[in-house]
Amino acid sequence: MPLGAFPGTITVIEKTGFDFLKAVAYLRTQKIIGFDTETRPVFAPGQHHNHVALLQLSGPRKAYLFRVASLGMPKMLCNLMANPRILKVGAAVHDDVRGLQFYQKFPERGFVDLQKIAYEWGIRDKSVKKLAANILGVKISKSQQLSNWEAEELSPAQQMYAATDAWVCREMYLKLLQCEKHPLTPEQLNPPQPQPEQPKATKTAQPAKPAAEEQKALSPSQKRRRRRKRAKAAAAAAGGGAQAEAAKPAATPAAAETAADKPKPKHRRRHRKPKAQQEAPPQNND
Could you give the CA distance from residue 143 to residue 129 in angstroms, rounded to a whole number? Predict the structure, then answer.
C-alpha cells in the first residue's frame, strides 16, 4: 500500500499579518477544505489536559497551519469556521470545534464528519488511518501524532503530518461523492458482541432447616405423604424385629439338660441370734 502525503505547499501561520490574510483569502475561494487540529499530548496520569495548539486547513494544493496556541482565533478565522457555504471535512470534528471555541466562540456551521457518514458507503471504520486505507488505498503515517505541538518551531515531519491529516480528509470526501452508496444495516453497524463465559456457580451447602420450619414449609399433601412414609418405615422395622426373634435358633434338649444340671450358686445367709441367747446369764445351782 503506497504512503499518502500532501503534495502541495505548506505554510505555517503564527501571527496575523500578510500571510494570515493571504491564507484566509485562499481558503474563502474553496468550496471544500480539509480540517483537523492537533493538541500537545499528556503522558502523566492526572496531568491537566492541554488546549488545541494547531489548526490545519487544506485545499487541493495549499495547506495552512495556524498556531492557535499563540495566534488565538481571530474574527476572520471564526467567520471562515462559521461559513455554511464552505464545507470543512474532518473526522470527529465536533471535538475539534469545541477545542477551538475555547479561544473564541463561533457557530459550528458547514462541517462534515467522515466518521458519521462513512457507514453510508458500507464502511464501519472510524480512524483516519483506516478510512484512508479503505477509501483511497493509501497508508497514512502516524509517527508524529504524539509529538510536541507546542514546540517553538514545528519540524518538517510535523508540518507534513499535520497538512496530510487535513488534506486526506478532503480527498476521502471527494472520493466518496464519486462512489455509489451501500449503507450498512443497523445489524452491521452494531453487531452482537460475544457474551463472556460466566463462571460456573459452585453449590454451597445450605444450612439445615429446623424440623419445625421444614414442617411449616410443607403443603398438606406433602405432610400426608411424609406421615405415610414414616408409618411404613415403622411397620417395616417392627416386622423386621419379629422376624429376627423368629430366626433365633431354638435351644436343643441336651443344652436344656445341661443348663438344668448346672449347680446353682449357694448364697449364705447370716442369721442373728436373739439377744436372750447371745447374752444368757450364768445359772447358780446353789
Answer: 12
Q: Which of 61, 72, 114, 67 is nearest to 89 (CA)?
A: 114
What is the pTM (predicted TM-score) of this model? 0.66
Dump pLDDT digits (tens) for 234-261.
888 777 665 656 555 555 555 555 555 5
Residues in the chain: 286
Q: 97 exposed, middle or buried (CB, 10 Å; 0-12, 13-18, 19+)?
A: buried
Residue with cell 479561544: 103
Secondary structure (3-state) at 266: coil
Which amino acid, one-letter code, is at 284? Answer: N
Burial 219-236 (b: 16+ CB within 10 A, else e): eeeeeeeeeeeeeeeeee
Where exactly are the structural domains of the chain? 9-42+49-187
> What is d(CA 183, CA 163) in angstroms, rounded to the nearest whole number?
30
The 10s digit of each residue's pLDDT in 144-202 is 988 999 999 999 999 999 999 999 999 999 999 999 988 888 777 776 667 677 666 66
C-alpha–C-alpha distance, residues 165 and 6, integer Å: 8
| Cβ atoms of 136 and 118 closer than 8 Å | no
Longest dimension (CA), the chain: 182
Measured distance CA(52)–CA(214) in Å, rounded: 71
Cell numbers for 201: 456457580
**What are 26-73's pLDDT values in tens digits?**
999 999 999 999 999 987 777 788 999 999 999 999 999 999 999 999
> CATH homologous superfamily of domain 9-42+49-187?
Ribonuclease H-like superfamily/Ribonuclease H (3.30.420.10)
